[in-house]
Amino acid sequence: MNHDPSDPNSTARPLDEKLSIWEQLKEAIKGTESDYTKIDLKKAIFLLAIPMILELVMESTFAVVDIYFVGKLGPSAVATVGLTETYLFLLYSLAMGLATAVTAIIARRIGEKKMGDAGVSAVQAIFLGLIASVPFAIAGIFFSKELLALMGADQWVIDEGYKYTQWMLGGNAVIILLFVINAIYRGAGDAAIAMRVLWIANGINIILDPILIFGWGFIPAIGIEGAAIATTIGRGVGVLIQLWLLFKGGKHIQVFMSQVYWDAKVMIKILKTSLGGIGQMLIGMTSWIFIIRILADLGSEAVAGSTIALRIMMFTLMPAWGFSNAAATLVGQNLGAGDPKRAESAVWKIGGYNMIFLIAVSIVYFFWNVQLMEIFTDDPKVIEIGAYWIEILSYSYFVYGWWMVSSQAFNGAGDTKTPTYINFVFFWLIQIPLCYYLAIQMGYEHAGVFWAVFISETSVGLFTLWLFTRGSWKKMVV
C-alpha cells in the first residue's frame, strides 16, 4: 500500500481548499489519500461521489449499449435478455447484499484505523462470493431452457436464447466478484480504483458486443449468445485487474498473501451482516421477477418494452446510486471514527443533491419518453409500452433520491435488517398483489403494473426517509 492514512507522519497532500473545481475533479478521478472522517464534508462527498458516479455511469452505459445491439435482433431477443435478468436479479441480490455488508465492515475498520483487519475481511468476502456463485453456475449450465420456460418464454427464446442464459448464469462468478471487490474498494475509500476497473471491464464489453453479435471479418456472427460472451470476457478481465490491484495496494487498503486464509469468525460476521443486505435485495429483485412474469403473460412486446425502459431507468439512476454509495462509505467511516453527527450531516447533504439531480431527469422523462425508446427499437408497440412506463417514472423520481440515500445510510451503518423489513412489506405485501390486481383482475394490463410500481415505490421511499430521521442506525455495532 502506498500510504497509511492513519500515520501522522504521512506525506499525503490534503485536498487544498483553493484548488479549482477541475483540479478537484482530477483529484477525485486519480484517487486521494485524504481521511474522509476529517476533511471538509462537502469535499469528502465530492471525492467519493465523483468516481462512484462515473463507475456506475459506465456500468449503465454498457447495459444500454448491450440492449441497443440486442434490440436489432428483434423483440424475442430483447425478451431473452429480460427473462434471463429475472434470474440475474436473484444473483444481483446476493452479490449486492454481500457487497453492502462488505462496504459497511471495511468502512468501519478503516474508520477505526484497523487496516490489517480490513485486509482480512476483504479476503473472507471474496471466499464468500466464490461459494455463492456455484449454485447459479450449475443451474445456468444444465437447466437454462427449463428456467426460461418457467418464466413463460416463447419458443424462439427457448430454442435460441438459452445459450445467452447459459453463459450469463454459468459464468456468474465474475459478476459476483466484480460487485464484492469493488465494494471493498468503496468501503476503504478507494472509489477511484473501482471506477477504473469498471471502465476497463465495460469498455471491453462494448467493443466486443457488436463484433460477436453481428460478426466482423473472420469472426462469425454468434447472435444473442455473443452478447453474453462479451459480457463474461469483459467482467472476467475486470476481476483479474481488481485482484492484482488489491494485492499491489491502493490508497487506503492492501491485502497481503499472509492474510489469504480461511477465518471462520470474520466470515460469519460478514455473513450475518450480509443476510439483511441479501434479504432486502432478494425481496426487491424477486418482486421484479413476479412483475416480469405478469408482463410475460401479456406478450413479448410488454416484456421488451419494460426491459428497455428498465435499462434507461437504470442508466439515469446510476449517478444517484453513486451519491448513495458515497453516503454508505461516509456513514460507515464516520461511525467508526465515533462521529455520528457528521455521518448524519453527510446523508442530508447527499439526499439534497440526489433530489435535485433526479428532478432534472424527471423533466427529460416527461417530455422525451418516446424519443428515448426510439433509440433502442422501431417496434411501435414496444415503444408505446416503454414510453408509458418512463412517463410514470417521471412522477416519482424526486422521492427516489431520498429513498436511495436513506437506505444506503442504514446499510453503511451496518443496519441491513431495517431496509429488509421495509422491502418485505412494500414489495411483497403491497407491490406484487397490487400489480396482479390492476394488470390481470382489473384488466389494465401493463399500465396496471406500472401504476402499482409507482404507488408502492413512492410509499416505500417516504417511509424509509421518515425512519431514518429516528436515528436508530447510529447505535449499530459491526
Your description of this structure?
The chain is an all-alpha fold. It has one domain (37-475). Helix content is 79%, strand content 0%. It contains 15 helices and no strands. The protein has helices at 21-30, 41-71, 75-111, 115-150, 155-170, 173-188, 191-214, 224-248, 264-296, 300-336, 340-374, 380-393, 397-413, 417-441, 445-468.
Kindly list the characteristics that best describe this protein.
single chain; 478 residues; mainly alpha; 79% helix
Largest sheet: none
- Helix and strand composition category: mainly alpha
Give the rounded overall mean pLDDT: 86
User: What best-fitting shape do the alpha-carbon axes yield?
Assistant: globular
Give the end-to-end Cα distance, rounded to a whole number of Å. Answer: 25 Å
- In total, how many domains does the architecture comprise? 1
Q: Uncertain segments of ≥5 residues (pLDDT<50)?
A: 1-17
Number of strands: 0
Helix content estimate = over 70%
Care to give the gist of this entry?
The chain is mostly helical. Helices cover 79% and strands 0% of the residues.
Helices and strands in order:
Blueprint: H1 21-30, H2 41-71, H3 75-111, H4 115-150, H5 155-170, H6 173-188, H7 191-214, H8 224-248, H9 264-296, H10 300-336, H11 340-374, H12 380-393, H13 397-413, H14 417-441, H15 445-468
Helix pairs in contact: 1-2, 2-7, 2-10, 3-4, 3-5, 3-6, 3-9, 3-10, 3-13, 4-5, 4-6, 4-9, 5-8, 6-7, 6-8, 7-8, 9-14, 10-11, 10-12, 10-13, 11-12, 11-13, 12-15, 13-15, 14-15
